[in-house]
Amino acid sequence: MGCDNRFYLRAYGCQMNLYEAGVVRKILAQRGFLETTEESEADLVLLLTCSVRRHAEQRAIGRLQNLQSLKRARPETILAVLGCMAQSRSTELANGLGADLVIGPDEYRRLPELIDAYRATGQCQVATRLGSECYEGVIPVNASQTTGMVTVMRGCDNYCAYCIVPYVRGRERSKSRQAVLAEAETLVRNGVKDITLVGQNVLAYRDGALDFGGLLRLADGLDGSPWIRFLTSHPKDVTREFASLLRELRNFCPHIHLPLQSGSDRILKAMNREYTRAEYLARIEWLRAALPEVSLTTDVLVGFPGETEDDYRQTLELVRETGFDFAYMFRYSERSGTAACRLEANVPEPVAAERLARLIEMQNAITRKRNQALVGRRVEVLVEECRGAEARARTRTNKVIVVKAALPVGVVREVTVMGIKGWTPVAESSEQGAVSSQ
Length: 438
Prior knowledge:
Layout: E1 6-11, H1 15-30, E2 34-35, E3 44-49, H2 54-66, H3 68-73, E4 78-83, H4 84-88, H5 90-95, E5 101-103, H6 111-121, E6 125-127, E7 147-151, E8 153-154, H7 165-169, E9 173-174, H8 177-189, E10 194-198, E11 206-207, E12 210-211, H9 212-220, E13 227-231, H10 240-248, E14 255-257, H11 265-270, H12 277-290, E15 295-302, H13 309-322, E16 326-331, H14 349-372, E17 378-387, E18 390-395, E19 400-403, E20 412-421, E21 424-428, E22 434-436
Parallel strand pairs: 1-2, 1-3, 3-4, 4-5, 5-6, 7-10, 10-13, 14-15, 15-16, 19-21
Antiparallel strand pairs: 8-9, 11-12, 17-18, 17-20, 18-19, 20-21, 20-22
């Protein structure tokens, strides 16, 4: 391949996809491709897709259809669909939607050879084998100066009734501790101050006898003392001992994302979530006892088949009682092949939409109240972006704060929260507030 090959990449969906966009960038860079920010300039246009919800698929399909005009104007342009949707809808993408390459999440290493094969034959290339791929040895291109992600495991064995992830990403498998730490050390050498360990369920991590708690201890000892976060955890795997371990870590950022999905035991059982309402609340209690300053975020799903108004009321009550700092809230979206597809008593869409709207309104008020509690306090932040006289920064508890000052990207500083705009805290800073600029 010549060095004049240019690619454009757009990633949809979760943190794992954003991470894997960096994997794809590295694989292409190693073969001489250069990235462009303009689709019209690209020889290769890649859409890294998500299948968790119908809306994410519709966005990617709409973009692929729009790209057909680019293909007509420049027939040599290669249109590639990567990721979860490539895995779940490969036949449709190859035969009806105009993709030239259809590549599942475990096949990115083959991207260069598949490009060559397409150019040689003009025939759509499909690669969707699922295996044990963890992309060890591929250090992704990291787009941020200050933050970075490292996958510690891929796949999922939980088979929640509504979730397509095990079918499109395969079974759980973990990276070796050596690969995880080597990747994290590379990020630190490149100036990254804030590292998130990522997996579909990081608490399932195993490398021999080493569990995720042990891996966190190793990451906590990295040279340069980067802030350490993780995403995501399944409530059934959170123990009192794990919560206590987090308190002992010097660089762990006290933010936990713990998906709830429903506050009704009946719906949780139908979802195959493997915990009850009471067990979920116990885990919240353990985490808050161990980490009094912890920020808790969650996922909530409304309109699951068979959800009654009483089930929904129980969800509202649990969300109100817990007081999450933030929540990602969704309406149930049927995913082909999942167990939920076999359930009857679907909730009418207008009812599900109204329930979601009520939940969002309530949680937004809670988020605003939680952030309002920061007013008047000094908090430590890492500056992630600066435009003019205003900086975007993040606290250890994962709250985004607007700082009314021109601050260098990458500086760690104490700021004073002066107020709230919408629900975003707004702060002021001074040179005397500097903590570190490493």
